[in-house]
Amino acid sequence: MNSIEGVQLDPRERGELTAQILERAVSEVGKNGATSNLKVGAYEAEEDTLRDGLEATYRQLAGIETDEARRYALVDKANAVRRWTLR
């Protein structure tokens, strides 16, 4: 994540790269467990925190998407990684 922070990218490209990185991080933490004192960009390397970041990234991408079908697909992805509460 740090390597893309200094690069000038349009919001869609930055969002897509961020989503790819966070998807991979969620997968790795799911397989190998959380790593204390490690961050992926602004997010602690814990599954819930990474999922929150991934959800926010998908919603950000959906907000700038002009194609309705792709926008709905991004919202579906955001909902799929969202943490659910029992409140």
Description:
- The structure is a single chain.
- A hairpin with a 2-residue loop joins strand 1 (39-40) and strand 2.
- The chain has 4 helices and 2 strands.
- Helices cover 67% and strands 5% of the residues.
- The protein is mostly helical.
Task: Indicate the topology.
Layout: H1 2-5, H2 11-32, E1 39-40, E2 43-44, H3 47-64, H4 68-81
Antiparallel strand pairs: 1-2
Helix pairs in contact: 2-3, 3-4
Alpha carbon gyration radius: 13 Å
| Spatial strand sequence of the major β-sheet | 1-2
Number of strands: 2
Structural class: mainly alpha
Shape: flat
Low-pLDDT regions? none
SSE pattern, N- to C-terminal:
HHEEHH
- Percent helix, as a range, is 55-70%
**Portion in strands:** under 5%
- Number of helices in the DSSP assignment: 4
The major beta sheet can be summarized as: 2 strands, antiparallel
Distance between the termini: 33 Å
Q: Please, what is the average pLDDT? A: 91
